[in-house]
């Protein structure tokens, strides 16, 4: 029988009766077509990273991006802005695409016993694009500029582990006391809690240095052409909605000089930008291009044999926030039942056309030392087991469950598929709701929120802890006076055992031992409790001509490694 | 006459004022612009500070009057996302939209008026049926379908530049404007053709045309001089208002072709919940529409002696 | 040639309904603006002298039909409209598959014997989805049309009959709504009421009624001065009775014509809203939604059916209603195109 749909109470006369009569007369639309494969094959293989070799100067690298929020470090947010900011600025440390931490402006760094105080020694006499020398004061200046009250920054929370941040941000202190200039070339940072991975954080553009000539964050004349210390500098101003041009900084001395003469970013319409990138690549106007989902298969078939294909599993997980504190998902069994009723492989194949890989963990494979394949044992499609678990958890047919997503971001189709699977496999009554992102956020935060909410998470810093702690630690719930969640743990998962493990991991200096603790924590939160429901592992595809460009790899922010690329 | 014009201006001001209030209230439906950025929530303390920077912590009526006061002095405020002055952004994109609107209207006139005249003069002929059918079909096609098809099959072909064009290799405006102008004009030209045909048919039945013919004037003079002059009035008024609509920006068409005009600006502002831009563009669009309607009404009153004004 | 009634505060008198279907260059503005343009564009036809006969009598209907029949396109349009309505009403009998049922193992399949129009991005049978879309289009199209016409006629008659400040207030409201960009207004409304069919209808009614109100007002203004209304008034008929019994039947013809045109307008507007992502819920096979979900497939060879099929459905529906409106206009108003 057909299900009832919202909003169709107003159907034409007699139709209701007709529907009841004919539900059975309609053919079943299931099963694979003749000659098609019943067993979907999912996920395209990753391409191996390109080996970095010495190159020669020259070449203009062109690519399309969408309009960034900012390229000035004070408010760099998305991949596009990060891409430009990382070319313009060099922070204390740098992170290679494989996760290794290498020196940036700092030559070495060390922590006290519990990782609550860090000391960075800087390379002497490196320079900003305007000739100023980069020293410890430059970093303090840059950080305080971001954290300053009324800076307008939406990303200053990257500094919130530093002592004195809160007082300074609220305007109650003249400086951020935790950042101390010990000498011209030594920076000491005191943290509010132990963090043995703090140097990773300093790779974020928000923690870039600023010259004395820096302009206020409210002045577009400066923020559209910021003065950095990176391997590239601005060539003219950022022409909003048109493009950004960077040229090599010839006097770069914080590391090896870049090979590329220039980088040209063309700013595209966000609605069909990725399609335009592909078109531009085919027409020879872009050297690096994304593509819309439907084109991934055809593009791979066409370009992989020509050596113009790049595929990489990256920093990101699509998941469902599952409201742990409210029925019906207030038991691990209920959450596992829902999870096992979702056929991730069929969605990945049918809707994403192989472009997304089903997730089997929350810490993605990008972290080979902490990734545990299959740690989410309930991420397997098993409708029979799902039904059993559902019965145990009281998730009986007819139970109402919210399924919410944000509109206009490409989530319409796959969530519609999940809806149907939950209805078919568990007989749930799904309240399917698409709303703008701000409403989506409000609904998740609100006291008493229940059900499933689509969300994605990408770590800010390349560490497993940046998945586990924000998404599942009790400290990340941050209830305000009205009972609203103001942290990132919307699921409201709260488990002292897990909290203790991640706290121990953060304070563990030894990397191997730390990774073991991350793994143990994930086995509890995901393997046992399924605090959130992992769905798809983010995978990215790019068109790039490896026979033309050397050293092209994709970095942590899914951008090309500009500082290494050279024209063959 | 003077009284009529004054009254119309008064009404226009009223409409624009009401629009500002409507937009001001409407944007609250869009939600808190500072609560989130990208796919992330902004920490409440920071969001609060940002709201204060833009005066959103003040009482509603105060916000509205501040906004009105600024508007009166031509200050459109600073947008939320990148902190750019909205007036500058609007001025940047305005010439593009003006060009697009004018070219579209020009295409309307060329295609629509000529097709309409031919159809009317050769009534019931093959060309008449052709014009009727083609224009009806054209009117039935939604603009976004037409735009998407043009983008997929025509961009980068012949005189039509490819979309996108890389930074630094802009094409001349008259090329850039072609595809979006055609997308907009096809529906409108079809409309003009039908209007022209109907109007011309009616004029051709009028006594003075019969007289002109009886006097032995050539058909060319009758059509070209007497009939055209009288039958073009409705087309001119139609195109005038149409221009008013187009000047407010073509939301869908401009976005599809990534044409950097008022409509594309609005499109991105809506997607990014950027209230100051939305408010400015909507008020501007209403203003353009109201002013052009006003001009058309006054023109119409002058042109058509049968209208009695008091 | 008699003079027109004073133009309603400078807006060109809406004496004659638009002869053409509504043209909206970009959907940015409300339906009314362009209709109004069309109305204003048709030259000074008088209203008061035109319809003397009460159009309700059987003889009149037969007359109308005999004139309607002469327009072949209008007859074709009527047939298509009938087919669409039939599909909408009997959709469950006509769809080989449940239009909501997805099959992720068989998405974006080209047309075949099993699926005559192929399948969409969720593996739903495209033909079934389109027929369901027809039902939705008719429910929304006709529902919106009826509501806007009822509201519009009521306010229009009130404004035209009462004149004075009532008239001024109502007309200023229509001015504002007609000048406001439709899509932006609709986005506001949908954000307030949430996503769904009803909010879309509400938005379209809010921005749709002013046009019929203006048409009705123009008619009423002219008719209230006519001899038989004077006569009715002189024998002491109440205002309500005069409006309902004497003015409405004589004024309704252009509104009816407009109503038919507006169904096509609403279908396109709903599709445009879905295209912008503020239409009906994402898993409802609405025509505009079917197009927007295939937006990314537009340059993938072999997937043309994904957007071509729903686009054709919209075009055919809009055309059919336009033809009918055209024929009705001719049939109801013989003087306009007659004389040949």
Provide an overview of this structure:
The complex is a heterotrimer of chains A (568), B (310) and C (340). With 568 residues, chain A is of the alpha+beta class. Chain A contains 16 helices and 20 strands. Chain B is an all-alpha fold and 310 residues long. Chain C has a domain at 79-98 and 118-332: Orthogonal Bundle (MetI-like fold), CATH 1.10.3720. In chain C, 65% of the residues lie in helices and 0% in strands. Chain C has 13 helices and no strands. Chain C is elongated, with a radius of gyration of 22 Å. Chains B and C meet through helix 1, helix 5, helix 6, helix 8 and helix 10 of B and helix 1, helix 6, helix 7, helix 10 and helix 12 of C. Chain B: Residues 94-300 form the ABC transmembrane type-1 domain. Chain B: Keywords: Cell membrane, Membrane, Transmembrane, Transmembrane helix, Transport.
Predict the CATH topology of the domain at 79-98 and 118-332 in chain C: MetI-like fold
CATH superfamily of the largest domain in chain B: MetI-like
Helix content bin of chain C: 55-70%
The CATH superfamily of the domain at 79-98 and 118-332 in chain C turns out to be MetI-like
- Decide which structural class fits the backbone of chain C: mainly alpha
Biggest sheet descriptor of chain B: 2 strands, antiparallel
The count of strands of chain C amounts to 0
Domain ABC transmembrane type-1 (chain C): 134-325
Keywords (chain C): Cell membrane, Membrane, Transmembrane, Transmembrane helix, Transport
InterPro entries (chain C): BP-dependent_transpt_permease, MetI-like, MetI-like_sf, OppC_N
Transmembrane segments (chain C): 73-94, 136-161, 173-190, 196-216, 255-280, 306-328
Q: Notable features of this structure?
A:
A: 568 residues; six-stranded mixed β-sheet; four-stranded mixed β-sheet; 20 strands; B: 310 residues; mainly alpha; MetI-like fold; membrane (chain C)
């Amino acid at each position: 029988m057909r299900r009832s749909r919202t909003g169709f109470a107003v159907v034409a006369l007699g139709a209701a009766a007709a529907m009841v009569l004919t539900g059975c007369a309609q053919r079943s639309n299931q099963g694979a077509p003749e000659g098609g494969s019943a067993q979907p094959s999912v996920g395209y293989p990753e391409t191996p990273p390109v080996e970095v070799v010495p190159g020669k100067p020259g070449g203009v690298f062109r690519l399309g991006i969408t309009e960034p929020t900012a390229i000035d470090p004070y408010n760099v947010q998305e991949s596009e802005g990060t891409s430009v900011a990382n070319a313009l600025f060099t922070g204390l440390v740098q992170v290679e695409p494989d996760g290794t931490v290498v020196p940036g402006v700092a030559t070495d760094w060390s922590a006290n016993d519990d990782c609550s105080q860090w000391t960075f020694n800087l390379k002497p006499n490196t320079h900003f694009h305007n000739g100023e020398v980069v020293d410890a004061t430059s970093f303090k200046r840059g950080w305080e500029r971001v954290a300053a009250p009324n800076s307008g920054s939406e990303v200053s929370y990257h500094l919130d582990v530093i002592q004195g941040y809160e007082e300074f941000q609220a305007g109650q202190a003249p400086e951020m006391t935790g950042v101390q200039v010990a000498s011209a070339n030594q920076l000491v940072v005191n943290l509010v809690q132990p963090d043995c991975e703090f140097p990773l954080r300093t790779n974020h553009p928000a923690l870039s240095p600023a010259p004395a000539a820096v302009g206020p964050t409210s002045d577009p004349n400066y923020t559209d052409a910021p003065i950095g210390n990176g391997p590239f500098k601005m060539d003219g101003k950022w022409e909003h909605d048109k493009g950004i041009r960077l040229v090599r900084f010839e006097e770069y001395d914080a590391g090896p000089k870049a090979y590329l003469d220039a980088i040209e970013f063309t700013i595209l319409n966000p609605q069909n930008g990725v399609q335009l990138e592909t078109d531009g690549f085919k027409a020879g106007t872009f050297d690096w291009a994304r593509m819309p989902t439907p084109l991934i298969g055809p593009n791979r078939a066409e370009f992989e044999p020509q050596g113009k294909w790049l595929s990489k599993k990256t920093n990101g997980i699509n998941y469902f926030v599952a409201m742990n504190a409210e029925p019906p998902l207030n038991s691990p069994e209920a959450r596992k039942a829902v999870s096992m009723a979702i056929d991730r492989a069929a969605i990945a194949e049918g809707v994403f056309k192989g472009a997304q890989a089903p997730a089997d963990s929350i810490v993605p494979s990008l972290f080979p030392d902490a990734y545990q394949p299959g740690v989410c044992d309930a991420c397997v499609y098993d409708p029979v087991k799902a039904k059993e678990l559902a019965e145990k958890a009281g998730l009986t047919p007819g139970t109402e469950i919210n399924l919410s997503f944000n509109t206009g971001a490409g989530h319409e189709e796959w969530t519609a598929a999940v809806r149907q699977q939950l209805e078919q496999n568990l007989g749930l009554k799904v309240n399917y709701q698409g709303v703008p992102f701000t409403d989506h956020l409000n609904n998740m935060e609100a006291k008493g929120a229940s059900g499933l909410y689509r969300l994605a998470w990408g770590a800010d810093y390349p560490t497993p802890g940046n998945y586990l702690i924000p998404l599942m630690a009790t400290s990340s719930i941050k209830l305000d006076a009205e009972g609203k969640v103001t942290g990132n743990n919307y699921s409201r998962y709260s488990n002292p055992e897990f909290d203790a493990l991640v706290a121990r991991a953060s304070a563990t200096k030894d990397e191997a031992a730390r990774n073991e603790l991350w793994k143990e924590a994930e086995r509890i939160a995901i393997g046992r409790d399924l605090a959130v429901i992992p769905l798809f592992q983010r995978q990215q595809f790019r068109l790039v001509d490896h026979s033309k460009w050397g050293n092209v790899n994709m970095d942590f922010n899914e951008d090309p490694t500009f500082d290494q690329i050279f024209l063959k | 006459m003077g009284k009529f014009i004054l009254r119309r201006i008064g009404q226009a001001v009223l409409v624009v004022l009401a629009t500002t209030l409507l937009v001001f209230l409407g944007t609250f439906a869009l939600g808190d612009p500072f609560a989130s950025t990208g796919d992330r929530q902004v920490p409440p303390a920071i969001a609060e500070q940002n709201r204060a920077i833009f005066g959103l912590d003040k009482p509603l009526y105060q916000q509205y009057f501040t906004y009105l006061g600024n508007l009166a002095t031509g200050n459109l405020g600073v947008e939320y996302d990148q902190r750019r002055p909205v007036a500058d952004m609007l001025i940047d994109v305005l010439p593009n939209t003006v060009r697009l609107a004018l070219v579209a209207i020009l295409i309307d006139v060329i295609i629509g008026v000529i097709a309409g005249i031919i159809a009317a003069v050769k009534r019931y002929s093959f060309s008449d049926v052709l014009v009727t059918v083609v224009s009806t079909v054209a009117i039935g096609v939604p603009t976004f379908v037409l735009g998407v098809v043009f983008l997929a099959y025509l961009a980068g072909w012949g005189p039509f530049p490819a979309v996108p064009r890389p930074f630094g290799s802009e094409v001349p405006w008259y090329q850039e404007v072609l595809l979006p102008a055609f997308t907009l004009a096809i529906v409108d030209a079809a409309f003009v053709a039908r209007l022209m045909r109907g109007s011309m048919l009616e004029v051709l039945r009028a006594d003075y045309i019969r007289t002109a013919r009886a006097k032995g004037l050539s058909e060319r003079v009758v059509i070209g001089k007497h009939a055209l002059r009288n039958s073009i009035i409705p087309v001119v008024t139609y195109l005038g208002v149409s221009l008013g609509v187009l000047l407010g920006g073509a939301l869908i068409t401009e976005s599809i072709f990534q044409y950097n005009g008022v409509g594309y600006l609005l499109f991105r502002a809506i997607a990014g919940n950027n209230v100051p831009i939305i408010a400015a563009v909507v008020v501007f669009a209403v203003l353009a529409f109201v002013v052009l309607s006003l001009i058309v009404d006054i023109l119409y009153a002058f042109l058509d002696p049968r209208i009695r004004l008091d | 040639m008699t003079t027109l009634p004073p133009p309603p505060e400078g807006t060109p008198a809406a004496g004659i309904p638009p002869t053409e279907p509504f043209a909206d260059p970009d959907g940015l503005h409300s339906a009314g603006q362009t209709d109004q343009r069309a109305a204003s564009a048709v030259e000074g036809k008088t209203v008061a002298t035109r319809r003397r006969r009460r159009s309700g009598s059987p003889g009149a209907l037969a007359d109308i039909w005999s004139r309607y029949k002469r327009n072949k396109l209008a007859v074709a349009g009527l047939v298509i409209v009938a087919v669409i309505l039939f599909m909408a009403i009997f959709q469950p009998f006509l769809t080989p598959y449940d239009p909501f049922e997805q099959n992720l193992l068989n998405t974006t399949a080209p047309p075949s014997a099993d699926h005559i129009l192929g399948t969409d991005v969720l593996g739903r049978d495209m033909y079934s989805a389109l027929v369901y879309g027809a039902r939705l289009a008719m429910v929304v199209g006709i529902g919106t049309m009826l509501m806007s016409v009822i509201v519009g006629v009521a306010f229009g008659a009130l404004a035209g009959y009462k004149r004075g400040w009532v008239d001024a207030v109502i007309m200023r409201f229509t001015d504002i709504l007609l000048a406001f960009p439709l899509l932006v207004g609709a986005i506001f409304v949908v954000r307030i009421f949430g996503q769904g069919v009803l909010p879309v209808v509400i938005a379209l009614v809010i921005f749709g009624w002013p046009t019929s109100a203006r048409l009705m007002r123009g008619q009423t203004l002219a008719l209230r001065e006519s001899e038989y209304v004077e006569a009715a008034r002189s024998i002491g008929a109440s205002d309500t009775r005069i409006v309902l019994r004497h003015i409405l039947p004589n004024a309704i013809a252009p509104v009816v014509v407009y109503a038919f045109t507006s169904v096509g307008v609403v279908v396109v507007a709903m599709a445009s809203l879905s295209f912008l992502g503020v239409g009906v819920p994402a898993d409802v096979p609405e025509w505009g939604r079917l197009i927007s979900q295939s937006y990314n497939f537009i340059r993938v060879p072999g997937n043309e059916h994904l957007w071509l099929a729903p686009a054709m459905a919209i075009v055919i529906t809009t055309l059919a209603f336009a033809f009918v409106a055209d024929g009705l206009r001719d049939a109801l108003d013989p003087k306009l195109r007659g004389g040949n």
